[in-house]
Amino acid sequence: MGASLGSLIPELQPFASDLVTVAGRAGLQPRITSTRRTHAEQQRLYNRYLAGTAQFPVAPPGRSAHEFGYAFDMVVTPMEALEDVAQVWQAAGGVWHASDPIHFEYPGFTPEPQFATVSAGDLWRVFAGPENVDMNLLETLATVLVTSTISIPYEMFRSILNAKPGDLNRLLRELVNWATRL
Questions:
Q1: Which DSSP string corresponds to 17-50?
Q2: What is the model's pLDDT at position 88?
Q3: pLDDT tens-digit profile of 54-104?
Q4: What pLDDT score was predicted for residue 2?
Q5: What are the residue ranges spanned by the domains of the chain?
Q6: What are the E-state strand segments in 134-177?
Q7: SS3 content of the chain, % helix, strand, coil (to 5)
Q8: What is the CATH architecture assignment of 5-105?
Q9: Residues with Cβ < 8 Å from 156, sequence gap 6 or more?
Q10: Is the pLDDT of residue 108 over 70?
Q11: Which end of the chain has the least Cβ crowding within 10 Å, N or C?
Q12: How far apart are alpha carbons 73 and 78 in whole angstroms?
């Protein structure tokens, strides 16, 4: 898990650095404990949270501002001074909540949805139109989709919407592989 302010989004870095400086000048011995996290790191922390062994709240993977570089965790000595540090952060426009006192976030973060619900008919229209689509794969997809709608990973959905004709067979194969694992 990273603790470098350089791994945060560029817009957040100077504000995070300034907060550390202000806390240091106040004699609070600030220490950054976490910045950007991988999905796997977030999953590990979330599992600890679910097991009741985490000291602070943890967002589910894919929903944490840490995974996108929009947040950092910082502790100070004494810990009771975090609310004072938070007032400085909030006065500068940052996001902070007493329920997670070590978490400092850049304003405006909203995670992307994890899944998109699409109709089987819409998928059929996307893939059945182009001449070069593998009809065997399309028929396999049709048999796998036993319901009229399916929730697919949002990234896959975006890839399908933005696909070039030459990419459709690859995306269709990925979608069939994903759908057959359900």
A1: HHHHHHHHHTT---EEEE-S--HHHHHHHHHHHH
A2: 97
A3: 999 999 888 899 988 999 999 999 999 999 999 999 999 999 999 999 999
A4: 65
A5: 5-105, 115-180
A6: 149-153
A7: 50, 15, 40
A8: 2-Layer Sandwich (3.30)
A9: 171, 174, 175, 178
A10: yes
A11: C
A12: 15
